[in-house]
């Protein structure tokens, strides 16, 4: 911890810190009275303030009634009235408290579940004193994280000079916590070195905000209004206009929300429609596996319908976007996709950014949104232009990309008009966590992990999960759609494909994105036809990139749109772009990931860097990604691409290889 | 007397009735809670009696609901491990294994054994706490 400056300002409220961690207020929830009593005694011996509770519902009530009454919660996994993981989720969303899970069950999948649901630790019963002695670190860590996040939100500027200093008292114990936890801070490490201390002790008086249903609803509305990619805490705060709510509160809630959406998107694949609160079972886990499988399957089948690709891409994208939480899954995805592009940069780069950056553009966007749905999403999402790749740009920053990409509304309109393409109007739903679900293709899983089109989505009936971009020709790229933002990362690609399919309905041939890039080739060919769409696609990609994080939300349709003024063309183009998207999806299985990654990374850049990772076949300009890529960028990238032909535009657009250029216009 | 107690405790450990966790409980005992261990053990027997009864009843049903049995046993196992009841805990594990493979007879036999261990430990601890 860099206690550079004497914790002068922070001294206030540090009174507690002097004794910290003594006095830590712990809530223990377990239906086993023996265990409960033992824990109570052990925690008491650690000088913590313990409150026992044998029922989950009662515990929630307690927490809700005492908003700032507890610092940390320890809960059993198996309880009769409510599943421990569900409780974990509730607490995380409503109160943002660190939660430790406990169980006699030490099997890997249960522990993994804890991780994916956001538990900050997992203890195996019988619990020993030593394990409990250090739980304070989670409290400190969280506080620090929140502070940091706050800072980050502020463009990385350290807001409060005072925060920096952690009371020296805390230094001792905080340091260990700090070191350990910088997961978020790591990302921002460079930006915020100085803010490390900011969090000073966990005892910092930070009034806990209880996110009631109404408050959360207001939050969601604000986020949707702004669009996932544009939803920065500051703006959300303004929109919400709730007295007493601070930006930090919003920032940390936003993070959770994204995580939640992400989880949802993973679910989407399995079945969309996850309610915001629904505990998603390892969305990530499943997502990853799904994506992996999808990709693999697709690859092998060689017929990966664009959808799947899109999904995958989306997944990758979304994954990428989700930086912290998704980083893990992304990694997996990466592997999956390591088809061609080993650089899943998205994941890495983007992740970091995701928090604030667009990265998650795609997240919000259900990748699999059928064009119709996309349209719906579209509304909520910012119109990328049509592409709302809004995959939840939770970070809000991603918004910029998305919006850029999709030239606002005009496109969508065009797209919409052009084809009934179902174009994934993802955007609409992007913002809303719930939206993603409906979009079949675009199911972007709320947070970025848009549903990559898990085959389920594609209303287009994509045979494979691959995003059938081609299908959707009609997809009006209206911004949304391209659910490319693969929702959960991997699968998101597919979702995207779906969107695209919608978009591409017109596109020639369903371009199923064969994973083996063949699809792309086809797409490319298609591209020629519609090439105009290509550009769109490219924009898409860029846009998608932002979401790429996992979500290759880049709905093909979006791709099509980029800047193509001609509506009609768009229709065509869409297909192309869709193809592209699909293509990218296809090629993207490997590429997508890359794209996603690239997107994600590019998102950070905000430029349409379409990393054409190298989907040579893909000529598709990574339309999948692009949410973030501003349209302009995309367009330029696309144009560039075009000239280059299927040359993976690597760096024009963050899309990997998905250059629209490649698509033969 | 103290020595007797110490010997008794030692033998409980040696014979595998109790494990490390029991020591943890003892370490928690202090002047403010001089009977902590006894309190916890009493709590354990009271609560687990209910579970044992549930399992008994479930074992009499036909066909056997293994997942429910497993769930009960998981809870029982958690309690046992909390107080360090080693032998009982290993019987729990055995039982769950039978459940996993769907061996109803195995479950029943294992449970009989478990109840025996359970009762034996209880008696010994009662003496110990006298």
Write the layout of secondary structure elements.
The complex is a heterodimer of chains A (665) and B (130).
Chain A: H1 15-19, E1 25-29, H2 33-45, E2 49-53, H3 56-65, E3 72-76, H4 84-94, E4 99-103, H5 108-116, E5 121-124, H6 129-133, H7 136-153, H8 161-164, H9 168-188, H10 213-226, H11 233-240, H12 247-271, H13 283-301, H14 306-321, H15 323-337, H16 345-356, H17 361-364, H18 371-380, H19 398-405, H20 410-418, H21 426-431, E6 483-485, E7 490-491, H22 492-504, H23 518-548, E8 552-554, H24 556-560, H25 567-605, H26 631-644
Parallel strand pairs in A: 1-2, 1-3, 3-4, 4-5
Antiparallel strand pairs in A: 6-8
Chain B: H1 2-14, H2 20-28, H3 36-60, H4 66-83, H5 86-101, H6 104-129
Short characterization:
The complex is a heterodimer of chains A (665) and B (130). Chain A has 665 residues and is mainly alpha-helical. Chain A is built from 26 helices and eight strands.
The side-by-side strand order for the widest beta sheet of chain A comes to 2-1-3-4-5
Number of E-state strands of chain A: 8
How many separate helices of chain B? Answer: 6
Structural class of chain A: mainly alpha
Count of extended strands of chain B: 0
Class by SSE composition of chain B: mainly alpha
Query: How far from one another are the termini of chain A?
Result: 56 Å
The rounded Rg of chain B comes to 16 Å
Shape, per Cα inertia axes of chain A: elongated
Query: Overall mean pLDDT score of chain B?
Result: 90
- How big a fraction of the residues of chain B is strand? under 5%
**Average predicted confidence as pLDDT of chain A:** 54
List the quaternary state of the chains: heterodimer
The whole-angstrom Rg of chain A is 23 Å
Helical content of chain A, roughly? 40-55%
- Most extensive interface, chain pair and sizes: A-B, 18 and 24 residues
Poorly predicted ranges of chain A = 1-16, 156-204, 271-632, 644-665
Q: Can you write the helix and strand succession of chain B as a string?
A: HHHHHH
Subcellular location (chain A): Nucleus
Biased composition (Basic and acidic residues) (chain A): 160-169
Keywords (chain A): Activator, Cytokinin signaling pathway, DNA-binding, Nucleus, Phosphoprotein, Transcription, Transcription regulation, Two-component regulatory system
Protein name (chain A): Two-component response regulator
